[in-house]
Amino acid sequence: MIKIKELSRLYQIAKTIIEYGLIDLAPEGQIPKSYWLLRTCLFWVSPKHQDKTTPERLRLSLQSLGPIYIKLGQMLSTRRDLLSPIYADQLAYLQDNVPAFDGEIAIKQIEEAFQKPIQDIFTNFDKVALASASIAQVHTATLKEDGREVVIKVTRPDIHQTIVADIQLMKWLAGLVQRFVKQAKRLRPVEVIKEYEKTILDELDLMREGANAIQLRRNFLNSKVLYVPEIYSDYCTKNALVMERIYGIPVSDIAALEAQNTNFKLLAERGVEAFFTQVFRDSFFHADMHPGNVFVSYEHPEDPLWIGIDCGIVGTLTNEDKRYLAENFLAFFNRDYRQVAQLHIDSGWVPADTPVEEFEFAIRAVCEPIFEKPLSEISFAQVLINLFNTARRFNMQVQPQLVLLQKTLLYIEGLGRQLYPQLDLWDTAKPFLENWMMEQVSPKTLIKKIKTKAPFWLEKLPDIPELVYHNLAQTKQVQQQQQLLIQRLNEQQSRNSKNQVITALAITLSIISTLLYLQDDGKINLYLTVPAVISWVLAWRFNK
């Protein structure tokens, strides 16, 4: 049941659509009838901001609706192959140019988080935010104890209540969609929203973000691909986080990167390498790599190094998910559509009774025209969209655990193509995946797995004889129970058979005695009536 707060939020969304004139985004002549119903119901709301362009109004509307919608805009801003440049440029402002809240409020929150006056912890604290995003903003300062330059990340006031209200509304709407729109059940909107709820609420906890950053930094320590700033764990709380200050060029500042002669091809390829390394080597990946969270080091532009910040959202995959993903990617790269179809069935992503040949043909029809283009012109986003449209006919279900991975891959491709339009995502990723697959069956990996499992096996080794004995004893007991059950079933079947025979006899005698009764003008034939009554009694007792 929708609550008052959720109704209020729904009204705010509808009001925003009207005030910012977002109906202009609909193709000409295709305005849905529901919009006119909405305008009639909210007759007192009038369009505003008509002096601004449609892309500006879209950006401002998402900004006014809050964190969840800002994040949607952030993701869309990286998809320049799907959006026109004027829309992508406007949405890019949402990456780190969200209006900041007052510095005095930030100081108050930091002092509450650390239970100390700010001057006891930092010097040179800048009240003007260095950057401001949808959930938090950062300020620069110097750590008083050792003079290190740091940035302090602090969450927005009352952000938790706003996000909870939005999530509850989205869950309510997802429930309605899943219940009344048959085509939407395949997308499992309720499960997707629940997964997103967990992700966004985790992002509100800056202690969790600090732990994520420490893990990611450890995974790429001394790497030439990715650098993660150091987290000062002594200064981590739920609402405030202190980390090393880094100096880099925003990845979206193409002019600055060109000015220092950055190797764009290598930079784009290393972005792809960083993503696949996180997913397949570490099973732990940064899932919010929009341009506002990614920088390029000033040092060695000919050998560029990525810098990743804001680890509030991370994703993990099971070994089974990784294996199926790697096999699917390789099958696509090799244009082995039969293998793609079979993998989807084996993994349970489509129903087990799906005809493999039909599914293979449908995938081939989608992918072959795409592969006729030069690989550098193929958009993975477009491939995903076409595949999802095709899979709809085969009742493919969305995998909630893969939603973050899909989003991150689209981010990476968007960034890569923005830096180096000729980026060949397929050719860059294929060698990495082939090597990873080979490593999974290599003697080195086998020995490593044995070493990992050896302590557990050694611990259990003395218990094996006892476990074997108990297993054999349990097997014998199960066999006895099965025999007893079979005997009881046989007895029940025998009783049922007798009951059926006696019931049939009772029915037959009753019919005959009734017919004779009618024929003899109401004279009861005891020779038939008595056996009929006895037969009914016996049938009742057998049934009981």
TrEMBL record:
Signal peptide: none annotated. Pathway: Cofactor biosynthesis; ubiquinone biosynthesis [regulation]. Residues 94-343 form the ABC1 atypical kinase-like domain. The active site is at 288 (proton acceptor). Keywords: ATP-binding, Cell inner membrane, Cell membrane, Kinase, Membrane, Nucleotide-binding, Transferase, Transmembrane, Transmembrane helix, Ubiquinone, Ubiquinone biosynthesis. ATP binds at residues 130-138, 153. Belongs to the ABC1 family. UbiB subfamily. Belongs to the protein kinase superfamily. ADCK protein kinase family. Is probably a protein kinase regulator of UbiI activity which is involved in aerobic coenzyme Q (ubiquinone) biosynthesis. This is Probable protein kinase UbiB. The gene is ubiB.
